[in-house]
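Request from the bench team (R.T.):
"We need a structural guess for the complex before ordering more S-adenosylmethionine. Sequence and SMILES attached. Just send the tokens back."

Command: build protein-S-adenosylmethionine structure.
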Amino acid sequence: MPLFINGKSLQECLLEAEEFLKEAGIENAAREAQLLFCLGLGLDKAKLFTLSTKPLSQKERAKLEKLVKSRASKMPFAYLAKTKNFYGRDFYVSRHVLIPRPETEELCELVLRTQPVSHLADLGCGSGCLGLTLYLENFCQTVLLCDISRKAIEIACKNAARLLGERTSSVTFLHHDFTKPFPYLFHNFFDVVVSNPPYVIEEEWEEVSPDVRFFEPKLALLVKNPKRFFHDMFCQVGAILKIGGRLFLETSPNLISLQKSLLEKLGFCDVEVHQDYAYKNRFLSCRKAFP
Ligand SMILES: C[S@@+](CC[C@H](N)C(=O)[O-])C[C@H]1O[C@@H](n2cnc3c(N)ncnc32)[C@H](O)[C@@H]1O
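Reply to R.T.: structure attached below.
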């Protein structure tokens, strides 16, 4: 059914959009409708209200209808806007990468409380938000951004170019499976490895909210055999870290004890669990021990 009949004012269309989103089960429908109208019309919120009696053109109505219907189908706003703010900077995102999360900003804070280093690797970089932010916050001098998804690497590359300009030469992009051996030149090279790997297990998949489950990349979320996957990943982390180098990992409270025991069995030391702002066991840090 078409939305926004010819001749309606911006304010009338906005109310119609709000009602449509509410019926589709979108929370904060009024706010979401305003955000979609700002996005579709290229206006800020103040301007949106000053133009409330203006009739919308056919082109504007068609554009807004597409946006509102997509959001009603649970498409996350960040994919419609093609951008997500992370640690104060706007990152380009598409459906090929996970939308950066506030917990990952907390991981940045945890890392930034430690001493700056020379070389950092971000394993499973997605949009590049984690590794690029740590570089831009002057935590490290070089960054390796690694992902198994070629599309993710392309997006990380685009974000590096947008945010770093000429300093992009400090970033290396690697299309690689981090559970498999890295090229030899990276062995014993990194001072710090950061990672927000997939951490939803199969038993939890059906409980994941529809906006995440139907729109975000499954490859970024689901881990099929966590014991095997994290064993293989941590072996490779051990190979690329310098002795004494640190790993900072974001994870699920359900996986943390498995990961902690794997890290200890593999000989990492100072294995510590850190809570997020919701008091959930969310992060792990450890060091590569002396042999
Ligand atoms: C949870 S997302 C995190 C993305 C980004 N670091 C962030 O925090 O927004 C996990 C990322 O790991 C990548 N990934 C999954 N398995 C991988 C593997 N075996 N090797 C390399 N990257 C992998 C996915 O493609 C995805 O981009």
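Two things stood out. The first strand starts at residue 83 and ends at 86. Residues 97-98, 100, 104, 124-127, 129-130, 146-149, 152, 177-179, 196-198, 219-220 surround S-adenosylmethionine (CB under 6 Å).
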